[in-house]
Design brief:
The chain is an alpha+beta fold and about 200 residues long. The protein has five helices and eight strands, in the order H-H-E-E-E-E-E-H-H-H-E-E-E. The chain has a single domain, classed as 3-methyladenine DNA Glycosylase, Chain A.
């Protein structure tokens, strides 16, 4: 049913399956001022443990990646390239590291506030990348560890009908190139880029 919150069970599955199923779902961010910002998830990437050299968890547990080894359904927010924040959701059962990177959204509600936060009025460019969408939604390290299953300020609603889904290798990595774990809606204008 569209509009229902995603539960713990949704996130507790094999990471690439969770990633693919997140497409079409709606990400909701309620700001400290009470503004509701929403976007349809149109692009994601899956990352998991010892079989994925591109994953933060590949070399084992650290202070930075500990959330990936914990319970599913939590926000894992990290700073990338010293430049922007990236939003991930933890997956699989405790002890099996996994996370899905949210790469792009199709803005739905609260667009004016997103434009203010991003400093941009180009809607196509507003949330078409992992760093763009976190800035547009006001997400930073303070959201790291947020339980998206129970949270009232960051959560995901089940989506409706989905478009044609395609997969490719992930963007911006030099290892783990064999995995086709980037999933996106073919032809959607808010995807960060059509081909990897």
């Amino acid at each position: 049913m569209a509009g229902r919150h995603l539960g713990r069970q949704f996130f507790s599955r094999y990471t690439p399956e969770v990633a693919r199923d997140l497409l079409g779902c709606v990400l909701v961010r309620v700001t400290p001022e009470g503004k509701r910002l929403t976007g349809r998830i149109v692009e994601v990437e899956a990352y998991r443990g010892a079989d994925d050299p591109a994953s933060h968890s590949f070399r084992g547990i650290t202070k930075r990646n500990a959330l990936m080894f914990g319970d599913p359904g939590f926000a894992y927010v990290f700073f990338s390239y010293g430049f922007h924040w990236c939003l991930n959701f933890t997956t699989e059962e405790r002890g099996t590291p996994g996370a899905v990177l949210i790469r792009a959204l199709e803005p739905l509600k609260g667009i004016r506030e997103m434009e203010r936060l991003r400093g941009s009025t180009r809607i196509r460019n507003l949330t078409s990348g992992p760093g763009k969408l976190t800035k547009a939604l006001g997400i930073d390290r303070r959201m790291n560890g947020e339980d998206v299953v129970t949270s009232k300020r960051l959560y995901v609603l089940r989506g409706g009908a989905v478009d044609s889904i395609v997969s490719s290798r992930r963007i911006g990595i030099s290892r783990g190139l064999k995995q086709q774990w980037r999933f996106f809606f073919e032809g959607n204008r808010f995807v960060s880029r059509e081909n990897a």
